[in-house]
Amino acid sequence: MSNPTAQITARKFEQDSPAGAGVGAPSARTIVKRGPTRAVYERETINAILDEAIICHVGFVYQDSPRVIPCVFARSGDVLYLHGSTANRMLRSIAAGEVCITVTLVDGLVLARSAFHHSVNYRSVVIYGRGEAVTDPVEKDEALRLTLEHAIPGRWGDVRPPNRKETLRTLVVRVPLDEASAKIRVGDPVDEDEDHALECWAGVIPLHCAPQPPVDDGLLRAGIAAPDYALAYRRPVQRD
Amino acid sequence: MSNPTAQITARKFEQDSPAGAGVGAPSARTIVKRGPTRAVYERETINAILDEAIICHVGFVYQDSPRVIPCVFARSGDVLYLHGSTANRMLRSIAAGEVCITVTLVDGLVLARSAFHHSVNYRSVVIYGRGEAVTDPVEKDEALRLTLEHAIPGRWGDVRPPNRKETLRTLVVRVPLDEASAKIRVGDPVDEDEDHALECWAGVIPLHCAPQPPVDDGLLRAGIAAPDYALAYRRPVQRD
Predict the structure, then answer these.
(1) In chain B, which residue's Cα lies nearest the Cα of A123?
(2) Integer Cα distance of B140 and B129 in angstroms
(3) Which among A238, B120, B145, B220 is least surrounded, fewest beta carbons within 10 Å?
């Protein structure tokens, strides 16, 4: 608890040497110093956040400057996949260098009695690592399948898979999940004792990602109905 | 249109020297090379995206490594404000260095007939600049007010404002919006001509940020009702 409205800024990185600690044990870089009671290193929690999110934000250094690009992704076990055009500078940059991938789910706004203690309920994951281009064609195909299934589970079987030309134009980059941490804030505002006497409402406004009914493509042929996975789309995905 | 599911990766940065071009004219760094028909440099469009978003992702370089942290923010005219604890390394870093701030609104999933042409409808803004600590106490107070009002319009008048101790513990950083660009994808999938013959549904699953009814703080005093700005909370904010 430290500042108005932005508990979400609280992740810190006091130390720097990327220790070899895996998920489950924080590295010097992933150890959360600000609001450490919010830090989570368990793989199950990290995976659940990654699997619910639709996009990530990819940070990299390009000629000494920071860059942050939104991107779809997929997770497979201990690996995260990004992909794009072979001409994509971000991918070419992280395929040979360091990357920081951040996934954030905003769950609610936390309204305290003081401006200072306003906050956000959220779940986030930060991954540090080095990207690596996927050259094995089987892994590459699977990464593209997983990416589509990550965004829209059930979709892959209905569509034309990538042909050779499309695959050749696509660069897939693998990032290991060895160095990842989650940070989570849940629940009520935490006010100063004396502020509870104020005539001020306090509580949480929950925020959800709400899918709407699917909209047919303008060129859709007559007689083709939207599939169940589009009609009943939701995050997080319901898994049997 | 280039690759499966990830048109959103398409922002590119072929050139590097940060030219002095303001909003309305792309700089060498903000000019969008991939999918350039999606690029927007008009200030009105950029502002609307910034004003709708609740959080941004702040990228910076710390000891040669990229870092990306989610953060609340506020916009005031040509300036964006970030804030947090005076102990916050991100803020201390960007108060004296380069930053890339990215805001992304995901509007829908675009389901094409081929895996390759799946995409995301989105609106994003990328800002490049150098942060600067706000030392003027009037500007600092106003930045904190604007940040709360950005997240929850109408809230500031109901809460206890920051006291001297809280303000002293808070660092506010100003980032100019001189070098910003937006990128937007809207509408239907764009399939290969021959794929229109497939027996495959195509279209868009729209996604919205859906606020839920406010939840009272467990310590709320009896007889205090949730205010209208919480009951009717929505993004984008309705402005008269």
Answers:
(1) B70
(2) 19
(3) A238
